[in-house]
């Protein structure tokens, strides 16, 4: 009862079907080949044309199945794997047409009734299908369109609006911690809160914490902050702000690196920035004594920090901060109770995730040395740390820092009480518990991510984009005389230009010109997406755009 159409050009599929017949759920292409002794280049061209042809006839949730002989695809699933330049590069070709590889499994001809492979060198002869693989492709989400976004926030007693930094446009106000969210970050936060409430009276005060702060955070490097310019006409009234000091956190104190003009009594320019931590909110609560000793105060919400590009370095993540005032001399036993409680909660969570066995360890602040990840290193800028909370999972039992614990004996100016606080990176915890290797996946707009966590269940994550292609480009430039090159600013610019498609930036060479003393740097930039299609042409365009923006915003001279 099937309709059979002959002489179909696989690169012009829509020409063979009426508009109403162009919504195929499956398109199969078993062992595509140009015929005779066609080389890899011609067969790549064939596949590229085929994938582009599929875009016009495949249903939105449809699949493309392409079977290739062992080694042809060029993915790690091939055993043995060919060198990239000698393969058909099927994943990169599909990405150029907007498709991602979502599954790959052995091609078993014997399971298809009546199937017979033929066509060896365009003859009626069979060819070897041992080790052949079936590659299953699906549509990628559309490229992100970064139109300017304004956000409203409370500053003192005033409501102001500001333009969101472009690199954060798709991450602001996502609502991952809201009551109707099934995101794993919220699940972990709720489970931790429930566990802690078994040991301590608990008060959740996360609502209405302002996104914007004013001034400069003490001790924090200027380049790690997302500075904000208020929308035109939004300059806040100083008098109204001072009246609202009791309800918000405004930084007006400066560290030892304060600008000389400020020290000499010159007026301080109004500076606003996105909150890099919830700790100042806790300090404001402590200062007002708006708490009961022995009651655990829980704050949670997204925080924003400029940082270098790495799989576990996040410009935005969800922080959970717990604060407790305890009797002086009991702080160590209180810390151990907190850690034991978190350990018990983590153990109960991992029972539903086969293959994941988290172990939590408490390490002295002096024991980690230079092994600090970006999260722990930044926390060190905010104030003295007594302990690091590390979570290890097989096969990395050594642990990654996901939290810090502080004691502030003088915060309350009390002889009887000591403040203990613990800051947890919920995003890092979600990655470790669910086996998510790239932080960007937590923020994907692809619905296939949240489908894996129905009703807040935690499971081992299975990527829907396998073996994403990567594209390597180098950029070299002269640094302005007498200036230090700001790597964090460079990485932040690369994040913005590429819409978080840059996965790695590595310094390849540093050269100082004899005589003039001019300094040249060469970096290797690797483009790769974790959740959507990225073709080589799109990556090349990003690289060109990055070069232009570097000249304009970093003041370098390209070589």
Describe this structure in words.
GO terms for molecular function: ATP binding; phenylalanine-tRNA ligase activity; rRNA (uridine-N3-)-methyltransferase activity. One of its GO terms (biological process) is translation. Its main location: mitochondrion. Belongs to the class-II aminoacyl-tRNA synthetase family. It is found in: Mitochondrion matrix. With 559 residues, the chain is an alpha+beta fold. It folds into three domains: 13-139, Rossmann fold; 159-230 and 272-454, Bira Bifunctional Protein, Domain 2 (BirA Bifunctional Protein, domain 2, 2-Layer Sandwich); 471-558, Ferrodoxin-fold anticodon-binding domain (Alpha-Beta Plaits). Helix content is 23%, strand content 26%. The chain is built from twelve helices and 20 strands. The protein has helices spanning 40-54, 90-96, 184-197, 238-243, 260-263, 279-288, 331-350, 374-382, 426-434, 447-450, 487-498, 536-554, and strands at 24-30, 58-68, 99-106, 133-139, 150-155, 158-163, 202-204, 212-214, 227-228, 272-274, 296-304, 316-327, 359-364, 387-393, 396-408, 417-425, 471-479, 502-512, 519-527, 557-558. The strands form five sheets. It has a seven-stranded mixed β-sheet with strand order 7-11-12-16-15-14-13, with helices on both faces. Helix 1 runs parallel beside helix 2, helix 3 packs across helix 7 (331-350) and helix 3 (184-197) crosses helix 9. The radius of gyration is 28 Å and the shape is globular. Residues 238-269 have low confidence and may be disordered.
């Amino acid at each position: 009862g099937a309709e059979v159409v002959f002489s179909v050009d696989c690169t012009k599929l829509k020409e063979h079907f009426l508009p109403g017949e162009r919504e195929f759920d499956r398109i199969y292409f078993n062992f595509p080949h140009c015929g005779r002794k066609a080389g890899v280049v011609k067969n790549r061209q064939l596949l590229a044309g085929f994938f582009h042809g599929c875009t016009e006839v495949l249903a939105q949730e449809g699949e493309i199945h392409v079977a290739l002989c062992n080694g042809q695809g060029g993915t790690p699933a091939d055993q043995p794997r060919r060198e990239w330049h000698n393969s058909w590069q099927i994943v990169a070709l599909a990405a150029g047409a907007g498709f991602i590889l979502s599954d790959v499994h052995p091609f078993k001809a014997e399971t298809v009734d009546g199937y017979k492979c033929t066509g060896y060198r365009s003859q009626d002869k069979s060819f070897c299908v041992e080790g052949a693989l079936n590659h299953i492709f699906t549509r990628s989400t559309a490229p992100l369109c970064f139109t300017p976004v304004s956000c409203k926030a409370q500053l003192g007693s005033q409501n102001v609006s500001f333009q969101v930094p472009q690199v954060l446009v798709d991450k602001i106000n996502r609502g991952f911690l809201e009551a109707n969210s099934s995101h794993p970050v919220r699940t972990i936060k709720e489970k931790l809160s429930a566990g802690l409430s078994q040991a301590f009276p608990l008060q959740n005060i996360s609502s209405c914490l302002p996104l914007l702060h004013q001034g400069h955070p003490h001790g924090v490097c200027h380049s790690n902050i997302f500075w904000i310019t208020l929308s035109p006409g939004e300059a806040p009234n100083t008098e109204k702000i001072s009246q609202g000091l009791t309800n918000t956190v405004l930084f007006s104190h400066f560290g030892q690196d304060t600008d000389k003009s400020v020290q000499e009594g010159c007026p301080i320019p109004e500076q606003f920035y996105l909150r890099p931590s919830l700790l100042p909110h806790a300090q404001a609560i402590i200062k007002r004594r708006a708490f009961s000793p022995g009651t655990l105060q829980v704050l949670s919400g997204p925080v924003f920090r400029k940082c270098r590009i790495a799989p576990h370095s996040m410009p935005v993540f969800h922080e959970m901060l717990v604060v407790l005032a305890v009797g002086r001399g009991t702080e160590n036993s209180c810390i151990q109770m907190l850690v034991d409680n978190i350990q018990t909660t983590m153990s109960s969570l991992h029972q539903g995730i086969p293959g994941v066995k988290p172990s939590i360890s408490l390490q002295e602040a002096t024991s980690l040395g230079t092994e600090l990840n970006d999260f722990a290193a930044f926390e060190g800028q905010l104030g003295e740390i007594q302990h690091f909370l590390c979570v290890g999972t097989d096969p990395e039992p050594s642990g990654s820092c996901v939290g810090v614990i502080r004691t502030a004996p003088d915060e309350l100016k009390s002889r009887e009480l000591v403040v203990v606080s613990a800051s947890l990176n919920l995003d890092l915890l979600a990655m470790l518990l669910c086996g998510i290797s790239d932080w960007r996946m937590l923020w994907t707009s692809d619905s296939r991510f949240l489908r894996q966590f129905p009703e807040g269940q935690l499971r081992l994550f299975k990527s829907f984009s396998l073996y994403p292609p990567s594209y390597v480009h180098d950029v070299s430039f002269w640094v302005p005389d007498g200036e230090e090159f700001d790597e964090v600013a460079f990485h932040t610019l690369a994040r913005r230009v590429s819409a978080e498609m840059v996965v790695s930036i590595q310094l390849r060479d540093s050269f100082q010109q004899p005589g003039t003393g001019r300094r040249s740097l060469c970096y290797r930039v690797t483009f790769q997406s974790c959740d959507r299609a990225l073709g080589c042409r799109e990556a090349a365009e990003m690289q060109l755009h990055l070069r232009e923006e570097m000249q304009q915003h970093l003041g370098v001279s390209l070589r």
